[in-house]
Amino acid sequence: MLTQMAVAMVTAAAEQTPTIDEPVYVATATDYLHEHRLRYNPEHPPLGKLVIMAGVAISDPHYDASFPGSQGQVGRHLLYESGNDPWRLMLWARLPVIALTLLFGLVVLAFARELAGTAAGLTALALYAFSPDVIAHGSLATLDVPTAGFVLTSAWLVWRARRAPRRYLPLAGAALGAALATKMSALPAIPVLMALAVVSVWRARRPEGRAERRRALALGLAGAAVVAFVAVAVVWATYLAVDPRLRFSPAEPVPVIRGLHERLVELMPFPGAFRAGMRAQFGLENLPWQGYLFGRLYTGSLWYYLPAALLVKTPLGMLALWAAGAVVVVAVRRLRPAAPYLLVPPAALLFAAMTGSRDFGTRYALFMPMFLAVAGGCVLAVAGGCVLAVRWRWAPLAAGALVAFAAVSSLRTYPYYLPYSNEAFGGPAKTHLRLHDSNVDWGQDLGRLADRLEHRYRGERVWLVYKGSAVPSYYGVHASDPRKVPEDDVHGLLVVSDSWVAKARGKLAELIKTAHPIDEVGHSITIYRR
């Protein structure tokens, strides 16, 4: 299962052009490698980019540290204006994230196997390994999969601390710190995992008398403090690994925030660069972002956006096993102690993500397919040939059928995992009618567009409205922007990224309305003739 996952991710990594966020992360990783300074992308801590840096170091790109400009401009300069091969550089930058994604699969396997046996572990691994969202984002040089995977690892280690708190709580703190050192969106997991650490210590002590209960509570609180202390220490160590002197010289101004947010930032026990990143995040939250859901374009956010997007972008068999697994771990006495460890962390993170202002995709909820894969595996709790978690004879057969259904649905979308949607919503070809941005079209298909134009439409005039950070001309796409000329001058091929189609208003909407769709590329770009 991990082999097919690796093949899927490496294929996607080799065939896809840079997505919108990747050039920034790759350029920042390159700056870490060459200059050892905290200058770009302060809104995300360094660890994920240090992981990417391992691949960048092998690629060994030429880097002009004196180039002025924003982090996005530096990324474009590194990939397209410095004599580097962007295909080679991006593949090497993505490979460490792919390796980390595969390792998190082993955590899913181990967690479910501990809870409910080998068959449950394999079922959980299947749900993880065939998740289109995990494959799609695990194949990119981005930070979402590492963050979610480290949180899952921390929850698993806190669970194991029920047997040996002294051994596992420091490790859980290290995994939690790795999540925080990758993305600040992991912050809501801190109080949850600290509370679970208290529960684990209490369970390990099994107190009986009043004095013993007080001692167990004190030790539990101490264990929670250890988790928090180690997590904070890992964040500090990550920044120190980039620059031991912790010099922070941002390339772009850090937003000024006031009121409660500023007071909270000042109280954080993290390096100044981390706190500046929190200010940048709060500044981003205050911008008027546009969202798109089920054909509706809106400004701001919808609280139900992420649950709705997950419903669209998760295989139907997987959704069924997620729901059944959540019920099983609560209803079955043997599994009930694990329910808080499996359900509370993703619930807390999902609630926090639902309150954000950026409705950009299910990548903000990648912890769901990870945690719920473990829960889903518990539907089939088999040990020694006896079903332990459920008593119905048809449960193993039903679970196997649902896993197979999810696997087939995932395999059918190969190699277009980013625009995946399940059969109830029309499959990958229809995702753009309901969602946008990283759910569908993140700039990943520019290379495929170049091949399509070369083989089917050579010599025709091309007008392009592209959503992405790649440079079309580098890949052989020589086109003009139709929005900058009179409508009557736009004849030939009108090529539009599907996120722009979703958000089309005014002139672009009129151009699309008076054109005929004739082709599509990667389920993310539509070609019209006008």
Can you tag this structure with a few keywords?
530 residues, alpha+beta, four-stranded mixed sheet, 21 helices
Write the layout of secondary structure elements.
Blueprint (H helix, E strand, L loop, with lengths): L1 H14 L6 H14 L11 H13 L11 H10 L5 H31 L1 H12 L2 H7 L5 H17 L4 H16 L8 H17 L4 H33 L17 H8 L4 H14 L4 E4 L2 E4 L5 H9 L2 H16 L7 H16 L12 H11 L4 E2 L2 E2 L7 H18 L33 H11 L5 E4 L27 E5 H6 L2 H8 L2 E6 L3 E5 L1
Parallel strand pairs: 5-6
Antiparallel strand pairs: 1-2, 3-4, 6-8, 7-8
What does the model show?
With 530 residues, the protein is an alpha+beta fold. The chain has helices at 2-15, 22-35, 47-59, 71-80, 86-116, 118-129, 132-138, 144-160, 165-180, 189-205, 210-242, 260-267, 272-285, 305-313, 316-331, 339-354, 367-377, 395-412, 446-456, 498-503, 506-513, and strands spanning 290-293, 296-299, 382-383, 386-387, 462-465, 493-497, 516-521, 525-529. Strand 1 (290-293) and strand 2 (296-299) form a beta hairpin. Helix 2 (22-35) crosses helix 4 (71-80) and helix 10 (189-205) crosses helix 11 (210-242). The chain is globular.
